[in-house]
Amino acid sequence: MRVTAGAERGRKLRAPRGATTRPTGAKVREAIFNILGPLSPNPVLDLFAGTGALGIEALSRGASRATFVERDHRALSALHRNLREFSLAERARVLDSRVALALQRLSEEKGDKFSWVFVDPPYAAGEVEPVLALLSGGKVLDNGAVVIVEHDRHHLPPKKAGTLEMVDRRFYGDTGVSFYRCQWELA
User: Fold this and answer.
1) Predicted structure pTM score
2) Closest residue by Cα to residue 118 from 31, 38, 25, 44
3) 20 to 30 A Cα–Cα from 88, which one of 55, 67, 132, 162?
4) CA–CA separation, 97 vs 48, rounded Å?
5) Residue (of 7, 66, 61) closest to 42 by Cα position
6) CB neighbourhood size of 70 (10 A)
7) How far apart are the first and last CA of the chain?
8) What's the chain look like in SS3?
9) Largest alpha-carbon pair distance within the chain?
């Protein structure tokens, strides 16, 4: 699996062996970034980051910073290795935490607001709706933020979650990607 565009284009991403970490494939990553268009200067948030494929792709394409949230130690090891090998560690923050706790921490810090939030949990885990509910509070989202949820055909996320409303959904084989925006601009 390789980075599809930007400064790190063509470089190989490391992933742990086994089926517990399921990195977003290059075709789906490229489609996501083509749909999103140009990056804003604000940082991105990669939830359930795994190897960091989505956040690293954003950094490669010019994102100022990325925050990665992951709790599986094998995936964290691969993520840290990828950031080191690509010399991206200085533009990255890695939180070894459950996503709900990390979002609470980030909202309490009142620091970065994120333009893009990538949500790629284990499909059958039932974590999408609670995460969307936490994000819809707006404490970590920048004005005009987009939340991108990866899923499969059997575990479709809701069309609306609090202030977030789905504006697009696409499928690439069995992998689905849903895009959410806030219904109104955040203060």
Assistant:
1) 0.88
2) 44
3) 132
4) 10
5) 66
6) 27
7) 39
8) CECCCCCCCCCECCCCCCCCCCCCCHHHHHHHHHHHCCCCCCCEEEECCCCCHHHHHHHHCCCCCEEEEECCHHHHHHHHHHHHHCCCHHHEEEEECCHHHHHHHHHHHCCCCEEEEEECCCHHHCCHHHHHHHHHCCCCEEEEEEEEEEEECCCCCCCEECCEEEEEEEEECCEEEEEEEECCCCC
9) 43
Amino acid identity of residue 131, one-letter, is: V
Strands in 160-161's sheet, in edge-to-edge order, are 92-96, 66-70, 44-47, 114-119, 141-152, 175-182, 164-172, 160-161
Q: How far apart are CA 41 and CA 115, in angstroms?
A: 8
Type of residue at 184 = W
Taking only the tens place, the pLDDT of each residue in 79-128 is: 999 999 988 899 999 999 999 999 999 999 877 789 999 999 988 888 99
